[in-house]
Amino acid sequence: MELSDRAAEYSDAGRRLASSFRKSEPTLTGVQAELMRACFEKTTGAVIEAWHTLGTAIRDAQELGLHLIEPESTTYSRTEKPSDRELGRNVWLILHLWDAHMGIVLGRPMSTSMSPNDVALPMSSRDSSGKQRPPQPRDVILCGYHTAYKFLQDIHNLDKVDDWRVPVEKIHETVLTNIANLPAWTAQRSRQGEPPWLSATLETMFTNVHFVVFALHRPFIFADPSSRHTAFHAAMQTLESQGRLFDQTEPLQYKAFSLVFATFDAMVLVAAVHVRFPNELREQFAATRRNLELGIERLKSLQARKNILANSALSIIERLYRKMLAVVYPEEPLGHHQGGTDGRNFMTMEAETVGTNWDTILQPDLGDVLVPQPMNELLRSGYFAQSSR
User: Fold this and answer.
1) Which stretches of sequence are listed as region Disordered (predicted)?
2) Which of 276, 260, 197, 273 is nearest to 230 (CA)?
3) DSSP string across 141-202
4) If you ran DSSP here, which 8-state letter would residue 132 be given?
5) Which of 36, 41, 259, 332 is the most exposed place for a label (fewest CB within 10 A)?
């Protein structure tokens, strides 16, 4: 029995235990338990179930009035134990961010909203005596929120806007300004002597910030060249960030959904741009190929650890990769860009592209994947169910 099997037993037991309590009297602890269950379901590939569990947690949180709690301060308390009010606000913020992110990734409606004015700012990097203070986990969340995450609900609602170009440009410029003004403690540097969790947590924040830019422009990649190129570059930044995060991740954590969601969406977009618009961004093709190959290797490593999401995404990405090679075929050999990866697998993949009728093989399987919400299409087309048999 693996640790993941034991984790499944504990999660199922926790759900049964929680169901024995009266639903007419929700508790904050119960909401936290539902959020943890949703996290577990996403990690084990039950993504749609996770979305429903998150919805239950949100409704219970609303029953408790967490969405109505006024912030005690725009800078959170320095006390060691937060008040119940502050804890409630913290939980509601996480529920809102999950709701917005899953709504965009899966193409689902949102059921929460939050004003940035009601969200505390990160604490100063120095304490009241002027001494350097190491950032705390919540500092990273709040930093990411005020840099970019706060726009997720606006991005989700862009389909209701008649002229999307104005808000897209405004959000884009604001996010770029915020990125340029990130606190000094977020800079990419050696983290020796700092808390061991900080480096990976910051890299996760960078992935999520790039995802916001990516998600902002992705719905318009077929209509507007500027959005297409911006989304492409944000996707490339996401893949590079995911690579750095993977290098800091222990194999025991390879089942985490966070190592698949952003990678899959970004890989689909950059490959799709080269397939649909082969005469654009040709100078980026070598970098695209390198990022896709490294991404495929990461997915294979996750697949070997029985990551269900990676197993499902890998088959799609490999076929899309071959499709891309068939459309934009470089003169230099594929192995020239391999670096430390196993070039033989990609050499074989490249050879398979020659003389192959990709329109016949890949349609309709990949037809829907090339639309703005690939994770939703992957779920809707049943790849997770097929791969888990």
Assistant:
1) 116-137
2) 273
3) HHHHHHHTGGGHHHHHTGGG-S-THHHHHHHHHHHHHHHHT--GGGS-S--TTS-TTHHHHH
4) B
5) 332
Instruction: Report d(CA 151, CA 195) in Å as an integer.
Output: 29
- pLDDT tens, residue by residue, 86-143: 889 999 999 999 999 999 988 899 999 999 999 988 876 655 666 767 888 999 999 9
Tokens 């977009």 belong to 269
What does the block give as tokens for 84? 């119940």
* Residue 155 contacts residue 168 (beta carbons within 8 Å): no
151 neighbors 167 (Cβ within 8 angstroms): no
Own/partner contacts of 181-188, CB < 8 Å, gap of 24 or more, are 182/143, 182/147, 183/122, 183/125, 183/135, 183/143, 184/125, 185/125, 185/135, 186/143
pTM: 0.83
From 374, 133, 103, select the one nearest 235 (Cα to Cα): 374
The highest-confidence range among 33-37, 60-64, 71-75, 168-172, by mean pLDDT, is 168-172
Identity (one letter) of the amino acid at 262?
A
User: Which burial class, exposed, middle or buried, applies to 366 when counting CB atoms under 10 A from its CB (0-12, 13-18, 19+)?
Assistant: buried
> Which ranges constitute the DSSP H helices of the chain?
3-19, 28-43, 47-63, 84-106, 137-147, 152-156, 165-180, 198-217, 225-247, 261-276, 285-304, 308-327, 343-351, 358-362, 374-380, 383-387
Q: What distance, in Å, lies between the first and last C-alpha atoms of the chain?
A: 19
What gap in Å lies between CA 142 and CA 150, rounded to an integer?
Answer: 10
pLDDT for 211: 96
CA distance 34 to 52: 10
- Domain segments of the chain as ranges: 1-120
Please count the residues of the chain. Answer: 389
Q: Is the pLDDT of residue 362 over 70?
A: no
